[in-house]
Amino acid sequence: MAKNLNLKKVLVIGSGPIVIGQAAEFDYSGTQAVKSLIEEGVEVVLVNSNPATIMTDKETAHKVYIEPLTKEFLLKIIHKEKPDGLLPTLGGQTALNLAVKLEEEGYLKKLGVQLLGCKVDTIQKAEDRKLFKDLMVQIGEPVPESRIVNSVQESLEFANKIGYPLIIRPAFTLGGTGGGIAQNEEELVTISTSGLAASPIQQCLIERSIAGFKEVEYEVIRDSKDNCIIVCNMENIDPVGVHTGDSIVVAPSQTLSDKEYQLLRTSALKIIRSLKIEGGCNVQYAMDPHSFQYYVIEVNPRVSRSSALASKATGYPIAKIAAKIALGLTLDEIINPVTKKTYACFEPALDYVVAKIPRWPFDKFVNANRRLGTQMKATGEVMALGRNLEESLLKAVRSLEVGLYHLELPSLKGKSHSDIVEKILKQDDERLFAIAEGMRQGMTSKEINNLTKIDFFFLGKIEKIIATEKVLLQEGKITSTVYRAKRQGFSDKYLAKLFNESEKDFTSWRIKQGIKPVFKMVDTCAGEFESTTPYYYSTYESEDEVLESSKKKVVVLGSGPIRIGQGIEFDYATVHAIEAIRAMGYEAIVINNNPETVSTDFNISDRLYFEPLTVEDVMNVIEREKPIGVIVQFGGQTAINLAKPLQERGVTILGTSVDDIDRAEDRRRFEELLKELKIAQPLGCTVTSIDEAAEKSAHLGFPVIVRPSYVLGGRAMEIVYNETELMDYMKRAVQINPEHPVLIDRYMIGREMEVDAICDGETVFIPGIMEHIEKAGVHSGDSIAVYPPQTVSKDILKQLSETTLSITKALNIKGLINLQFVIYHGEVFVLEVNPRSSRTVPFLSKVTGVPMAKIATKAVMGESLIKQGYFHGTLEPKQDIAVKAPVFSFAKLSEVEIALGPEMKSTGEVMGKDKVFEKALHKAFVAAGVNIPDSGTILATINDMEKEEALKLFKRFYQVGFDFLATAGTAKLLSEAGIPVKVVDRIGQSDNDILKAIRSGRVNLIINTISKSRNVESDGFKMRRTAVERGLLCLTSLDTTEALLKTIERNTYAMEPLS
Amino acid sequence: MKKIKLVLETGEEYVGESVGYELDSIYSMGELVFNTSMTGYQEILSDPSYCDQIVVMTYPLIGNYGVNKDDFESLSPALKGMVLRESAEEGSNWRNEYSLRELLSRFKVPAIAGIDTRELTKKIRNRGVMKAVLVPVNYPTHNVQIILTNSLGTDQIPRVSIKTPIHFPGEGKRIVLMDFGYKKNILRSLLKRNCDVVVVPWNTSLEMIQSYRPQGILLSNGPGNPKDIPEVLPVIRNLQQHYPMFCICMGHQLFALANGADTEKLKFGHRGGNHPVKDLRLGKVFMSSQNHGYAVTTSSVAKSELEITQININDSTVEGLKHKTLPAFSVQYHPEACPGPEDTNWLFDDFLQSIRS
């Protein structure tokens, strides 16, 4: 069938903020889809609430709306834009759920909008557990015995019939929120309670656990002519029981014979046909390791995280093809964009092995429950390609950037056999390393298979790595042995350590021996057809396939896996830098390892190298390509950290010099600089003993922020208010000694401001200044940011501009710089300076209309700001007000503290923009998924220090129609102020305790500030977690509370009797 | 591990580890071809169509799931060698009985591993298929060059075809399967449909075939050049007058030649499980399992008794033919799969349907 010519204008829905289970992959798929639609001459209107995405650049689509993804806002856009079609299959579960709502409520029909990609009926059949099961039974595809339940009682009845273990899967949730595996009745009650609460339709599927089966996925595409293909199949190293998003995955499958491969392939085609999906779809299977018995676990009738991975793993761009199919094109009409010679109607053949390892946030959430199960916990992932599995796996390990360069975890060294067994059984994020350590100690594959059910094939590969280690130790540095190790993916860093020498020395020895990698091309067809798409990976083999080019080249380093603190914002800047470099006539080369992102789309750069971001791997590319230089400032801390070692190896760092980067990052040198410039910063010191800490803190004056020096990004950082707390922290949280000093800074409670600036070495241009709603002390990434500032005087803004100009100038910045300030008693203090692109760059670029990363790139490449049309100074803000709000994924991470503090916790962000501040704020809250109550009951428990401030807010809440439940102290405060309040007891004290109040459903909002008293705090923690589990809004900062209150006040009416 | 080397007709040498039958002073020569299937090595190496060929597997890890008793496509491999990036020492799968290496040794198939198979694949792609030889690593270069001047012969079909007929009883239709090097799964596909099958040698006479009182004729796949056995063409011409006929791969090419069309050698053939075939009548595309070095010349079909029913999406080569007036049709690929996609196994049903009507 030819293209549907009635579709002139199509609305594409994005996936909203990054949360666990729905991340950067949808920026990739959405951006691809929009481009693909535009290629076909369609006018595209895009809506997404996430400003940190490439898809929400105004250049991406004809019209881009950054608005909350709710029915109300979508309807407004549909009314205004009158699209012919709506494409919801590329925006994850969010877009799909919205489309279902619009269709079911009759809006699409009424407004004449055609739903593209799949029918609502299809979505329901795939997503509603019962309908799905019925369909599978109807077409003869096996599903595990299961029952749909709407109550805990029903799940118990089912358990009595078939026994344990059982899997609980809530309907219509992201990443399996609220689900789990129950081994007994007690666990079943707990998990099904939370599962039912998590499901928007209070429905769960309880099914027989098939944990231990092989988990295999198929990515399928179907068109309107019923042509179906498999793009890729993937096998999880972790058997069924660990969420596929948390599993180590390889592609293609490794342990399936052709009979098994085809059995599942045929089933997958049958399923997509029965669902009549037109586009991409993902089918997950459990395969019995001892028979041909298999079960269909799940079907996603849309483009997913797995399809992004499959696209990068094969080179076959699923989203791009799916978008064209949605317009009515068929697979045999679409050209294969990689070979440009063959058609999209074929199945990619791989001639390499792909390994994906998830990136978990446990480095930030040290108290989180690390056990992996049916609830996804990873924030991102890395992918690596190699010509054997060991190579891919080891490359993936060092791509993770968790300080590991091998299958070796220092903390497991010297552990006893039983400790290792226990660790393996824990089934946490470190299991792979525990297995390797076990093998190092002599555990056999059989033993480990018994514990984990991981297939012998995979265990055999780990065994081979360990065997090579032993050979290396025995034989020493022998060329042939080292070559073999390199072919297995061993890093120079590990080998150097093994041979007791520096990495640099080892590397030069290796190169002298002629052990150098070659680069192979990813071409979708295993070399069968000629391809000119320069998508490469390194391996140790004979032929190198890098296409020669006489153009000048620039390397841009990406930011690696998405993690808390380094998210999609850095990919955004990377993509902009690449575009600017290409526009200037250079060839842009990108090195990155994140399969979810736009920067690793092979169409974005001139050359894509899918490699770990380590010195060794980056140097390999540089030596091969001989670029004029490397740009490090867009890839977050990952890339910045590589600047110095690269320069030491003779590489030209383009942009701010390595020395100037160091001046900004080295605490001592930075202090000197500020002293020279006569710019104030909070007083601070470095201490190396507990006594010194006490003495110097007293001198600085409490409260102080303390943090260990050897961790970055706010980990283990805490604010302490007195000496007792300080002592407690010193003993509890850090190791202190001359090697590991602790930094102590005066904590100034004040308004936090953030500035991003661009400099070409001469001119400093400030596109905008942002104000944070939350006071200093809440990590800037977790604060609500407002542009332009609403509460700060002109004079302060001038001071901020001037300080920014002078620091930027003094640091000889070439490119971007980010500065954070606190305003304390009317004075500006510098908190932090980052000589690189920051989290706020996409937001600020969008609200100011200044493409900051592009301008910065051009400045780096020598085009002055003046020539680019910018000036020395600060850009005047426009009329609109924009608010950036953080989004958290607390529901996915049990046992994680949700209270805001100096450590960053959010996974994503949204933007709200309007003419009026409160409206923009309201939009931001709505977009962030905050369920804003306009009246109801507030459960309040406030620490003593903040009671006064809280009372002011409570009075205002009372005026707009809220009433209160409160713990004793807070209740006293309220009743003394004449506000009616009911007291609730501390946990466990009576039937009227906090948890029961929350669970009763009486509470609409919780306001809880953290107490410093430990026993009160453990109650607080339980309360906050319960709130999260019940999906209840819990605010821990009075600043956030006030912001929310402002939007409520604006939207409601004061309720007062006549006086 | 013992070293061996692969020497191409062009003189290029690849040294690797011997992972199959240990070559001593002997050598193994064949036509060097590549296969892009990611699974199915056991089926591939036991497919008689690879007779006198050395197969490069483009997927780098081969032998992962071992070898089992069920997945053979013939009793003994006819290929001359395998070229691999890596071969698994042991297989991991519930059906695994022994390793790929053991299989190769048992059937005296040499194999070389540790080779940059992608480089080799691209060479074949760019220059076309060529002769190559596997020899012990110290084998004198001069001797290798002499070996490579030898021809591969034209007797592959006679060598792989059975020598006497075999009967596989069934309740349903009686099919005579003419064996040019048939894959077991063609037989299984018929037996699964209750057919009564007589497999006959490639050169069985018309009279002999008729004596089995077939209801349908199936021409199998097989190795080499279809023009090597012109003697079967009159038999085919005659059979198609009397019986519904279904022809696969080599059978398809012979069917074409028998009806006035021509065949030609492709540069590097089609070998893999991802070849898109479009059925012109249905307007639909199917993924197919392919293994052929020759193809029916497109332009030659017009003047023949045949019409094109299916084409390859990638290079437009002829993938399916049917007789203009008789109930006889053919496909270039393998509807019996094994290895590869099962998208077109309905062709067997079509064939049996054509017998009924």
Terminal-residue CA separation of chain A: 73 Å
Beta-strand residue percentage of chain B = 25-35%
Low-pLDDT segments, ≥5 res of chain A: none
What is the helix content of chain B?
A: 10-25%
- Largest interface in this structure: A-B, 53 and 51 residues
CATH architecture of the largest domain in chain B: 3-Layer(aba) Sandwich
**What average pLDDT do the residues of chain B reach?**
96
Task: Please summarize the sheet with the most strands of chain B.
Answer: 10 strands, mixed
Choose one word for the global shape of chain B. globular
The secondary-structure element order of chain B is EEEHEEEEHEHEHHEEHEHEHEHEEHEEEH
Q: What's the tally of helices of chain B? A: 11
Characterise the protein shown here.
- The complex is a heterodimer of chains A (1059) and B (357).
- Chain A has 1059 residues and is of the alpha/beta class.
- Chain A has eight domains: 9-122, Rossmann fold; 123-142 and 210-348, 2-Layer Sandwich (D-amino Acid Aminotransferase, Chain A, domain 1), CATH 3.30.470.20; 145-209, ATP-grasp fold, A domain (Dna Ligase, domain 1); 358-363 and 380-517, Carbamoyl-phosphate synthetase, large subunit oligomerisation domain (Carbamoyl Phosphate Synthetase, Chain A, domain 4, Orthogonal Bundle), CATH 1.10.1030.10; 551-654, Rossmann fold (3-Layer(aba) Sandwich), CATH 3.40.50; 683-742, ATP-grasp fold, A domain (Dna Ligase, domain 1), CATH 3.30.1490; 751-878, 2-Layer Sandwich (D-amino Acid Aminotransferase, Chain A, domain 1), CATH 3.30.470.20; 932-1051, Rossmann fold.
- Helices cover 37% and strands 20% of the residues of chain A.
- In chain A, the strands form seven sheets. In chain A, strands 28, 29, 30, 31, 32, 33, 34 and 35 form an eight-stranded mixed β-sheet that branches.
- In chain A, helix 22 links the parallel strand 22 and strand 23 (653-654).
- In chain A, helix 5 (120-127) crosses helix 6 (129-139).
- Chain B is an alpha/beta fold and 357 residues long.
- In chain B, 24% of the residues lie in helices and 31% in strands.
- Chain B has a ten-stranded mixed β-sheet with strand order 10-12-11-13-14-19-18-17-15-16, with helices on both faces. A seven-stranded mixed β-barrel of chain B has the order 1-2-8-6-4-3-9.
- In chain B, helix 8 (232-242) packs across helix 9 (250-258).
- The chains are: A alpha/beta (1059), B alpha/beta (357).
- At the A-B interface, helix 9 and helix 16 of A face helix 3, strand 15 and strand 16 of B.
